[in-house]
Amino acid sequence: MVTNLRLLTQHVMFLVLTYGGRFGISLGSSLPCFSCPYVLGNGGTCYLMALQGNWWGLQMTWANLMSVMGLQLLTHLGVFILLVIILNKYWCGWICPFGTLQDWLTYLRRWWGIREAQFSWLTKDRLKVIKWILLAYTLLIPLLIAHAGWHYDLHLPFCRSICPAKPLMPLFIGQTRHLALDSTNTVTLVFSILSVSIAAGMLVGMFFKERFFCLFCPLLVLIHIFRNVSPVRFEKNVAGCTGCGNCHRMCPMDIRDVHEQKTDKDVISEDCLLCMTCAEACPEDEVLTIKFFKWRLFSSSRKYMTRRFTKKKVSHG
Amino acid sequence: MDKENKMSDQRRQRQLQKIGRETQAEFESTRSQLQQRKDYRPEWDYFLDLLMRLFYPDALQVAVDKPVVEHLCNQAPFELFHAMGVHPARLGSGSFNVVRVSSSRLPVLMCPYLKATMGMFELHGGSRLDRLYHVVPTTCDWVVKFPEMADTVQTTCFLELPHLREDEKGQKRWLEEIYGLVRFLEHQTGRKLKRKALKASVQTFMHAWEAVGRLIELRRRRLLSGIWFMVAINSFLLDPIEIWTEHVLKLLDAIQSDSPQPLHQGLFLAGSPIVFPNFKLLNLIEAAGMDVCADDLCTSERIWPGGVCYDNSSCHGLLKTLAERYHRACICPTFADNERRFNSIFNTLEQHRIRGVVFHVLKGCHPFDIESFGLEPKLKQKGYKFLRIETDYVEEDSRNILTRLEAFSGI
Amino acid sequence: MRRSSKQTCKLPGIGNRLVFKRSLIPINEFFKPRSSFDVSIIWIVFILLWPAMATSGSDLEVGGLCPQYVWIDCAQQSRHKNGALTQYYHISHNADIRPDCLDARDYKVLYRFRIRSKPKKHPYGFDLVTPKEGYYSSPVLCGKDGLYFTIKSEGNNIVEVFVVASCGRKQFLAHVIHPIFGKAPHEKPVQKGAAQLPQGLPRLRLGPKFSVRSMYMQTGRAYRFEYMSKYTTAKSVSILENQQHMASLTVSDDGTFAYTPPHDPKLDRSGPYDYKQTVVLVEETGAKREYATTHTLLLHRSYLSHNRLNPGLILFGAVFLAVSLIVVFNRKYRWI
């Protein structure tokens, strides 16, 4: 049931965020998900562009900061923080259209019976730091453009050189121009080479590894910062856990924290997308619970797990 | 010299025949005792017939119509055997009589469960022509030495069980072992493991798990006695799994349509395995006015780790899932990082308002023996009753055990 | 291109200008403190030259000559605290001559906004509803860099500016049209102005119709102009850039001509909002007067012309294949 609800939500939000602008839907520019602004006619855009940008973002001089532009910056930031607090990681696991694209690739791989690539625990831990590096890259370069006179072609550094959504998401509206190399000058050429190469590499990664890009997503970091003030809670009854490891195995992000946690009840980790797959797979009753304020949204149970993972028709092997 | 050997062999044959008859009688009498119970119903006959196959292994062979692979313990994934077109048969016996077959050649303090298994092995050695190979995970010392004692090392696939399972190294090593098992089975059967077959097997066992889950639920509600539950679950893998599942579902429908009355005070049974026809402790518990409504015996509720959920349906993904499930969810006390295994006991006690735990330890079963000393203070700290019963495959201590159980029920 | 900190702003829309040349007339030299001997010499020169100045009339004569053309030089922008934007313009003669402050009264500045229609379909779209008549006037002021005027916009608008002047028989009309991105939260509704453009002046217009995309004027894109004049005399069209004559064009019988600004490597190396000013000059001799009409094109570097799709697709495919092979061949177990 949770999986079906999530699938429905993901697909509806994909349509809304990719094509909604053509029907007059505009959810603003402060969305905490990868709804790419380069997709013309989108129903709302990713906050990272506003954050980096020179209208409402870091690439703003002090003089403009003290004017109504500064107020607009604060408005956009405030809306972003509010959205993050209300839904927290649900943006990642249930709404983000780029996440939905990654899930489609995963379904395709599963349908073909190709196995998922695996990282060792050490590699996975080492990869975590990349999202922090990307966040620093996203924040620092606009500041340097605004205050240290760096070349303006370095603007929107994350969107234009790193983010794989920029070349890939516009393909859904038939636009291929972001796969082109921009030979205007050296900076634009390097940025476009990086963008196209990273998109190609990420596409392979996203096919062979579930939610591959989410390992590197700087927006995930920004959302995670506010987890403590969000009413969304993911809790574990550590006394009830039998250590079966289903949660670790089923997690699209290969998070070990839920399985390994033996003392604290708060198990929403940095990489968590709140897809609730671990809670669905937990065979013990009421060990993993997702709450919104005091209300329990979902709790693990043996019956649910059995029903969820038993297919109705069986072909004898 | 030859004459002496010949006489010795003849004596041995006569001894085996005698023990065989007595063991057969033991099986038959236990069966008839069960059929004479007040809560007996005809649906149980199917399961009782299956349990007789523990004494008549050829019947199993005929029923499944596939090569049979015998295994000790529960760590080798059953789904894998099923997908390879072989039938997994668990080695293990609860017969008191058959212990005498090989007891003279085995240590006194050896686990009686394996002594009986060895005895049954020797008793039926001649008719095990189709059981060409065995799978033995290296759980406890007795299990590790069993193939050597049974002279089956050449046909045994050892699975080196990592005793640390919460670290990556242990999990990777176990997956390597499972891949080794796949290669072993492919070599023995001449077939390749197919992804679709494995996936279908997983689903088959999931259906069985669903049925067992409903049985467990009835048991928790005290609508199914511990002994009958043990009868049903001990017969697991003594018939093709699909047929067994169908009969379990029929049984469930029959029980639920009768609206039975709740039974005695429930208790939790933990510890060393209990296998038909060794229902001594279960009978004594009933005689003391209690009933086992939950357990975590590896021959009962934990006979297999249960439902397998996977998100990666490639061959590797399914094997990895099975490896992890059978490794991490196993409650065997041989694992070093086993602290969370007690959580399932506490959960069950709390959720179903069970007041006490009876811990069954077979003499010589060191891992469970050690574990009982770890569990006792934790239970008592939470306010639950605890009773440790150390016994053997003998009837002489029954009265003593009954007295202790009666005292325990009165506390 | 190096930025001049005084003359540039960091806002998109018009954005940063290229460095342009300053005025050659050392106006400031005349106003520094002097001795009484110096003052007396200045008065004698003034009296001797007065008749020459008196006979020149009240037009834009410099040294007795009329300038060849007048053009609007877009300068810096200033953002107000409420988000409104003020654009500064300089009035220039020919290539690099700035008119004297004494000539301020001879210029007439008219402008109007191309307002956004309601309801707005897109936050940055301009549904162009052109008021057919009515312009605002802006006073021409004198600054240290010469004559200038300003236009303030509260919200996002397209402004169309005309500067009208005359000198003897010559009639000048300078024109520029560009967006101004004001950000005031409460935009006052734009009213129609009260002034009117002088009748009978030839007009140079970008045509045939406006679109949002044309507001980001860029090199490599063809721009069609329409020269509307009541005369059928020969017209010469010159393209001027950085004080240099770049090209000559011919006007077709229907008064249209097209110009495709070539790509500029220096402009390409600057930022996406940097622009250069290219003046389109049309000169015509009428019955009694000569007309010099200019349009200032604010050209940015091309947005799409440098995009190479095929190399991009090849790179994408190559990286895709390479990474796939690495993943597949690094697999330890069976991969299906």
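qc> The CA atoms of residues 99 and 261 of chain C lie 28 Å apart.
qc> done
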